[in-house]
Amino acid sequence: MSRVYNFSAGPAVLPEEVLREAAEEMMDYKGSGMSVMEMSHRSKVYDTIIKEAEADLRDLMQIPDNYKVLFLQGGASQQFAMIPMNLMKNKKAAYIVTGQWAKKAWKEAQIYGEAVSVASSEDQTFSYIPDCSDLDIPDDADYVYICENNTIYGTKFKELPNTKGHTLVADVSSCFLSEPVDVTKYGVIYGGVQKNIGPAGVVIVIIREDLITEDTLPGTPTMLKYKTHADAASLYNTPPAYGIYICGKVFKWLKRMGGLSAIKECNEEKAKILYDFLDESSLFRGTVVKEDRSLMNVPFVTGSDELDAKFVAEAKAAGLENLKGHRSVGGMRASIYNAMPKEGVEKLVAFMREFEEKNR
Ligand SMILES: *Cc1c(COP(=O)(O)O)cnc(C)c1O
């Protein structure tokens, strides 16, 4: 068996410990005589799995009791619609457009009501986070929406926007569990787990209870109402059962690692290795404003498309995979999520150094 260092933006690297445990439990989960993939989601065994997953997540993020944790499907993209369908009581919301995912969410919301862009960084190809300390937010806006970490462009909100009392909704797909968060500052925190937590197919929504109501937009399908899933503790219908089981293992792994403060320190250390090199390199350079750099997704370029392609190909041959930038922006991107070991980043930087020597 040989594993590569996988810098994919998502689906992405998972902790080896978790994969090993899952492999060991594949044929016979804890004496049940079957794999977790084969068991009823209504069984006692599975009930323990989903309840423990929720309890561990609550513990890790210190989620207050007045927030529900929902394990859903449909990808982060389905939330682009579910959020307005459930929260747009006044049919108005404010969007901060800091990348493609935020833009998609903003466009989707326009189907359901007036979605106003109150700030954007599109003028500089989303290479920075706009100043959000004093935005012109409509008084009757139902919520303010952000994409907290911009997976494609590699920027991150270091400070949450001043929502002027409005509910904050955040897509945290690519920074989920990368650092401690104050859940009370948000109305909704959600993300697809395939970036920083688990396998594709699970979306976690953490939502304040008062936002879960029957009063959704007319025509909202039962499956797209938060209330449906909150009332049934994520078991209204068959949940993405195996994916939730793997997420649960990752939560336990994070707890063993020391929790979110500890993982933040690791993430800062890893990111520093790469950013320090980018700042001193004569060939490579990072593409975003320093203050807004993401700890998770690090885009960089050489300045030549040809050299970029050569780099990606040679890196792959050296066991450093998925370094090609998003198809919309080109260049390179190293996603260095929680499960990427420090050695992976060190190997990458050593390889970049060597590449620079050879291609001066
Ligand atoms: C990947 C990603 C999405 C889209 O996720 P899907 O699960 O594929 O719908 C949305 N937002 C962010 C920030 C992402 O990184």
Topology, pairings included?
Elements: E1 5-6, H1 16-24, H2 44-61, E2 67-72, H3 75-87, E3 92-97, H4 100-109, E4 114-120, E5 143-147, E6 149-150, E7 155-156, E8 167-171, E9 188-192, E10 203-208, H5 226-231, H6 241-256, H7 259-280, E11 285-286, E12 297-301, H8 305-317, E13 320-321, E14 332-335, H9 342-358
Parallel strand pairs: 1-13, 3-4, 3-5, 5-8, 8-9
Antiparallel strand pairs: 2-10, 6-7, 9-10, 11-12, 12-14
Helix pairs in contact: 1-6, 2-6, 3-4, 7-9
Bound molecules: pyridoxal-5'-phosphate (PLP).
Pyridoxal-5'-phosphate is lined by residues 10, 75-77, 101, 147, 151, 171, 173-174, 192, 195.
What does it look like?
The protein is of the alpha/beta class and 360 residues long. It folds into two domains: 26-256, 3-Layer(aba) Sandwich (Aspartate Aminotransferase, domain 2); 259-358, Aspartate Aminotransferase, domain 1 (Alpha-Beta Complex). It has helices at 16-24, 44-61, 75-87, 100-109, 226-231, 241-256, 259-280, 305-317, 342-358; strands at residues 5-6, 67-72, 92-97, 114-120, 143-147, 149-150, 155-156, 167-171, 188-192, 203-208, 285-286, 297-301, 320-321, 332-335. The strands form four sheets. A seven-stranded mixed sheet has the order 2-10-9-8-5-3-4. The chain has a three-stranded antiparallel sheet with strand order 11-12-14. The chain has a two-stranded parallel sheet with strand order 1-13. A hairpin with a 4-residue loop joins strand 6 (149-150) and strand 7. The longest helix is centred in the last third of the chain and has 22 residues, at 259-280. Pyridoxal-5'-phosphate binds next to helix 3.
